[in-house]
Specification:
Strand order of the largest sheet: 1-2
Shape: elongated
Largest sheet: 2 strands, antiparallel
Number of helices: 2
Oligomer: single chain
């Protein structure tokens, strides 16, 4: 099956945003968690490194999910493949 130019454009934008969001996920999950142990001060009674790992990452994950859903809905409408509501 041959893809049209519009389909190619849609797919490349989808892959690009997915790669960026996976890179952000990787940094938040592994890089920040690794370096957070060097943050040695109290934040609301807990070590700041614990706060970053336990709370900050979850906020970023929810933000990633929200942004992907919003971006893909916009991209779907732009390319005429949005679901009818």
């Amino acid at each position: 099956m041959q893809l049209t130019e519009t389909q190619r454009h849609y797919w490349s934008k989808n892959l690009r945003i997915t790669a960026v969001l996976v890179a952000i996920w990787f940094v938040v999950t592994f890089v920040v968690g690794y370096w957070a142990r060097d943050l040695n001060f109290e934040f609301f009674g807990w070590p700041f490194s614990f706060w970053v790992a336990a709370q900050g990452a979850l906020i970023v994950y929810v933000g990633i999910i929200w942004f992907y859903a919003w971006y893909m809905a916009k991209l779907d409408q732009e390319h005429g493949v949005a679901e009818e509501e």
